[in-house]
Amino acid sequence: MTSDTMLGIDTGGTYTDAVIYSETAGILAKAKALTTRHDLSIGIAGALENVLAASGIAPEEIGLVSLSTTLATNALVEGQGGRSGLVMIGFGPEDLKRDGLADALGSDPVLFIAGGHDVHGNEAPLDLEALESALPALSPHVSSFAVAGYFAVRNPAHELKVRDVIRAQCGLPVTCSHELSSKLGGPRRALTTLLNARLVSMIDRLVGSAENYLKQRGIDAPLMVVRGDGALISAAEARLRPIETILSGPAASLVGARHLTGLDNAVVSDIGGTTTDVAIMEGGRPRLDQDGAVVGNFRTMVEAVAMRTFGLGGDSEVRFDDRGLAARIDLGPRRLVPLSLAAALHGGAILDVLDRQVRATHLGRHDGRFAVRTGIPDHLAAGLQPQEAALFAKIGATPVPLDQLISFTQQKATLDRLVARGLVHVIGLTPSDAMHLLGRQGQWNRYAAELGLKLAIRHKNGAGQPIAASPEALAERIVDRLTRQSAEVILASCFAEDGIPDVDPVRSVLIDRALNREPGIARFALSLDRPLVGLGASAAVYYPAIADLLSAECAVPPDADVANAVGAVVGQVRSTTTVFITSPEEGLFILSGAGDSLRFVDEDKAFAAARDRASTIALAHAEASGAADAILTWREEVDAPEIEGRRKLVEARIFATASGRPRMARH
Fold it and tell me: Which residue among 27, 160, 253, 562 has its CA within the 20 to 30 Å range from the CA of 447?
């Protein structure tokens, strides 16, 4: 019997979410655990234990497990990953100057060898001797290899031969560029392949940790991973092509939004503690970044959701600009630990200090702020400068008030560097605290939020007056500010998708008048042409007001807090194969891509062979990724202009896509 009970997992910046989902009954249970950034497997295990306990479901009843992760994205952004050797076939050193390849390569070794193909798939002689003689010196200093051949998307034969030699001689993982993209553009394809090679060992450890936990708990089910375009791939495929998991988490949230709301067209905004992610849903599918996902300042050839991320969330830092007659409030982009959360975790270490500061006659420069270690193991603090190490030594697992920690101005910059290293959290006032005081959130300590806001209203504006009449009034202003900034980032994303990215909602007088609904002879109004879907644990308290400001229908599903985990488990396996037909001379048609080049003298036979190759390989890839009963769809693009009254085939591109639900375990 096949089980329809599934387990979905999403590793976010603050929490790891888990859901147990049934195709017939929907969500059976959901749970969270704090994400353990230094070892994600700990947070995953915690979330799974919590959701299993909440559901009462026996582990052996689970038929499928699916995981979305930010690990690959974070690693590339932070410059992490293993050292890789890049083998360029048919390229020269001048090609490193294109598409940021030299910057991405850094100090990793590169080897240029003769070979490669032309646009029609015809080969140049491959110099395997140069490869074999260079490998003994290269292999001890790298953990993987990346192989990129000239026009390998038209004929991958040379990449495959080089891969086989490296595997036989070195026994190290090898990534070939034709396995990652069918698009032309050798240097960017090489860059994508290099980044993938660096991630192989990291994703292998994550998937291995998840598999080990599932085995220990008796969960005998396929493990899937969410790809950056929202599709699912098997854990084995994710190990081979980990770069495809960049933007996995945001993609899962869009799939979850579609499933939870049933909306085909929507603006989807996911608010977390740290960021707000905005994307567009069109025809039931997320819009994809056609130029390739950008991550870590590098544009890859990986298809991923066109997601825009902004440093704005429920835990954003509240900043006061008191230089004008009316004090201005701005939020983010830095995340703080909310006072209400810190007091729930540390009790008197927060409340006693806030009480002392409130009783003082004047507002101190660092009142309402604390520092605490993040819990990252001490060995990751290696390499601190003496002043950083000295300050770090004064900070422990119990929060330290900044008015006791910082004695002179330069120490503030030192503290900021410790925060940037991920070693220290700063605790302070956030929108989450404002919501606690107003009674719209209640999971943490309201009294700490009240004390923090009592301190904050002591700030003066340019006229020397308090910035708010009461803590409640200031809390309302903070929430209003989050509403306005959220509307602005959503509009910025919509303008970019509409092809007018130069319009800045923050600086535009007309947009300001429209959002404020100001009267005038000329009145301005704006609205969205589709519903606004709010996701995230706090979406229900923020997004009705944001949608109202944008004159949009608001759609916050009941399980918006675990939409990513739902998306991880309800997605489909999808594999697309592209095959090309070119005609270099009249009466000759060359089929290339996804295999060896073939020559035809009959155009119809060339197209038939191309369709057959594309469908066969797409179905095979979908099956290897875990699809059951995949369905094929087709798309063809033919460039065949009339020249002097006669049709001339320049290039035809045949796309075959195989998609289906993942295969479930039988129990």
Answer: 562
